[in-house]
Amino acid sequence: MLPPDDVPELLGLIAHDLHATLGRLSPAMPDAERERLAVDLMHSCRTTIGGHRLPAAPRASASDLRGDPAYGRLHDAWRALIAERCGMPDAWSDVAVLHLIDALRATAKGAHIPKTLLTTEHDAKELWRRYKGNIRALALEVGISSERLRQKLKPFMAAESKRRQPDLFNEDQT
Fold it and tell me: What SS3 class is residue 50?
């Protein structure tokens, strides 16, 4: 499975590892269906606990973490998806979800789980067109963090700075 290209790198890695784990848990499931389920699980992770740092808790098993609010919400959301899509008995669904959460923990390693999807290059150009010098105001207007907006606008800001302030020591101008 190729990771989706419209998501941050960590979410793509999570989808890839979930796909591999689903292959071990349900080898009879067709690959295309397994891929769709892995992407849906990844999006469920993003919407359920995105924007938070998921604790890695390396010494605790996934079943011990069900009391943690983030893992509890994620467990319930993933269990519902597995039950709906796979038709597994309840006990198997629980085991499958615990294996998937272990795969998530191994991939994320306690990193911040992104909540927003990547925008396309056209969207970055649109953001640059709307930018009037106040990153915070535009970030609030479009609903992304000011740091993420700064990352998206950085190439445009560098090009604009270079256009307005040419290199003083450029040897081509002599």
Answer: coil
Reference 128, options 155, 102, 103; nearest CA is: 155
In 3D space, the residue among 13, 8, 18, 9 whose CA is nearest the CA of residue 38 turns out to be: 18
Contact 11, 46 (CB under 8 A): yes
- Which residues, listed in sequence order, are joined to residue 112 by a DSSP beta bridge? 53
| Residue 21: how many other CB atoms lie within 10 Å | 22
End-to-end CA distance of the chain: 54
Other CB atoms closer than 10 Å to residue 33's CB: what's the count?
13
For residue 141, give Cα distances in angstroms to 145, 147, 158.
10, 14, 23
Q: Read off the pLDDT of residues 75-114 as tens digits, 9 standing for 90 and up.
A: 888 888 888 888 778 888 888 888 888 888 888 877 777 7
Mind listing the pLDDT tens digit for each residue in 110-143? Answer: 777 776 665 544 478 888 988 999 988 888 777 7
82-117 burial string, b = 16+ CB within 10 Å, else e?
bbebbebeeeebbebbbbbbebbbebbeeeebbbee
